Amino acid sequence: MIDMDWRHGAACRHEEPEHVDRTTAGFACVFGVLGLGWPVGVMRPGRGCMIFDEFDRDLRSLRVARWGRVVVVDGPVPFPVIDVDGRPVEPIARFLRDFVARGHAAGSVRSYAYDLLRWWRFLRAVEVEWDRASSAEVRDFVLWLGQATKSRGADRTRSLATVGQVNLVTRKQYLGDQFAARTIRHSNAVLRCFYEFCIDAGGGPLVNPVVLDRGRGRGRRANAHHNPLEPFKAEGRLRYNPKASKARPRAMPDERWVELFSAMRSDRDRAVLALAISTGARAGELLGLRVADVDWGDQLVRVYRKGSGVPQWLPGSSEAFVWLRLWLAELGEPGPGDPVWQTLRRRDGEGPDKRRRPLNYDALRAVMRRANDALGTNWTMLSRPEARFWCCHQPVSPGRSPNPPYRSLGNGLSTVSAVRRGSWLSARGRGSCCPGRCNG
Questions:
Q1: What is the CATH classification number for the domain harbouring 412?
Q2: What pTM does this model have?
Q3: Residue 64 falls within a domain, yes or no?
Q4: Rounded Cα distance, 210 and 290, in Å
Q5: Contact 226, 232 (CB under 8 A)
Q6: Nearest in space to 405 (alpha carbons), one of 428, 421, 389, 420
Q7: Cys-Cys with 181: which of 50, 242, 255, 430 at CB 3.0–4.6 Å?
């Protein structure tokens, strides 16, 4: 017997429903044990009624407490998630341990840990256990992320006036306090990966709560006309993935590039910026350079690629190597194993025995922040000046084999593909990518 109004229907005998998890109720209905009254009523013959916890949550008034945290430890898992008592969250710990064993970098472990911590906090706020979560919780989680404000350790000060605004010079938007669509999509991917691991290990729900929207817009089933001699392919996007807008091309005009390069205060800053532009390497990859990673004869630098850690030699412009040589002359005579980029001074000590320290990512961001404050801009190391295209087609010295353009970009794109994607405004190739002492 089915009663659509399950709270007042005679079939439920006016009794308080018995709460069970959706997986148990759903399987019982499929195998004919129960009658199902949608959207929430499930009646068990002769024993009252039980329900799904399917109701409209007031997400705007939902308060998600800052439960637990991600800590840094010296161990196999560098970024575990701990609860309020300081103990690791066991399901997350098992997943991250397997995640590290599969060769993922520490940065990826940190990103996954924060996404899972955010999910755990939401589940505690809605009073649902992690292994009882369903697609309804994932749906509400996505809706909550779409209207929630990011939690911050400290209040904004100087950046308060520019939150979410567009810079008039760069035409780039400042970071806002809301979660971006790409952040939500990444969170959904992390949750699906986490529950796939738990289900394969014999724990968690029977069905992955982060469901795929198979066949959406195509009107056919997944893996239709599949060749039995080939493995099945994953089809369909995640159902509750928000649509991400197409990113604008990262580029800057020649005159803006000259202004940014002129705002650098030292030969070190000019060298790292020139190498970043001419090689196309990521900032984190360049910061790991050692003196032995520089090939002065062929003007190459060796970086270790993000994720895989595979070494790769990337060609740089002649101007970038000029600034690099000036910086190393200022640094002294570093050994082959010494880091190329070091701080100009030590801040946590006084006296003549100050020592240099390797330049980290936060210090490099401070370099860009000082330049942006002076120029009134919001450029980042991810910006793609058109000078990169110019650097890729520099004339080569006699006797030196030219580097093919598809290898001149360290971001994995060929020159032709990057032009088609609009990674710079034009390919005019005017002027030098490194103004100042270098001829161009």
A1: 1.10.443.10
A2: 0.71
A3: no
A4: 43
A5: yes
A6: 389
A7: 242
Q: Do 31 and 129 belong to one domain?
A: no
Cis peptide bond N-terminal to 242, omega within 30: no
- Do 261 and 409 fall into the same domain? yes
Residue 237: name the closest of 219, 257, 254, 222 by CA.
Answer: 222
| Nearest-angstrom CA–CA distance, 408 and 369 | 28
Answer whether residue 273 is part of any domain: yes
Q: How many C-beta neighbours within 10 Å does residue 56 have?
A: 6
Burial group, residue 204, by CB count within 10 angstroms (0-12, 13-18, 19+): buried
Does residue 117 sit in the same domain as residue 174? yes
Asked if the structure places residue 438 within a domain, the reply is no
Note whether 119 and 191 are within 8 A (CB).
Answer: yes
Query: Which three-class secondary structure string do you get for 249-273?
Result: CCCCCHHHHHHHHHCCCCHHHHHHH
400 plus 258 within the same structural domain: yes
* Separation CA 392–CA 407 (nearest Å): 9
Question: Is 308 part of a structural domain of the chain?
Answer: yes
User: Residue 118 corresponds to which tokens in the numbers above?
Assistant: 């955010």
Give how far the C-alpha of residue 58 lies from the chain's centroid of Cα atoms, to the nearest Å.
29
Signed CA dihedral, 289, 290, 292, 297: sign only: positive
Q: How far apart are CA 315 and CA 60, in angstroms?
A: 52
Phi-psi region at 62: left, alpha or beta (left = phi > 0; alpha = psi -120 to 50)? beta
Query: Does 159 share its domain with 259?
Result: no
Written as tens digits, the pLDDT of the chain (440 aa) is 333 333 333 333 334 444 444 444 444 444 443 433 333 444 444 444 434 445 578 888 888 988 999 999 999 999 999 999 999 999 999 999 999 999 888 889 999 999 999 999 999 999 999 999 999 999 999 999 998 888 776 667 677 777 778 888 888 888 888 888 999 999 999 999 999 999 999 888 888 999 887 655 455 666 777 888 888 766 667 889 988 887 766 677 888 889 999 999 999 999 999 999 889 898 889 999 999 999 999 999 999 988 778 899 999 999 999 999 999 998 888 889 999 999 866 555 555 556 788 999 889 999 999 999 999 988 887 654 444 444 444 444 444 444 444 444 555 544 433 433 343 333 333 344 444 333 33
CB-based contact 235:223 (threshold 8 Å): yes
| Count of structural domains, the chain | 3
Kindly state whether residues 368 and 407 are assigned to the same domain.
yes
Asked if residues 4 and 12 have their Cβ atoms less than 8 Å apart, the reply is no
Task: Please tell me whether residues 262 and 364 are part of one structural domain.
Answer: yes
Domain ranges, residue 125: 69-221+233-238
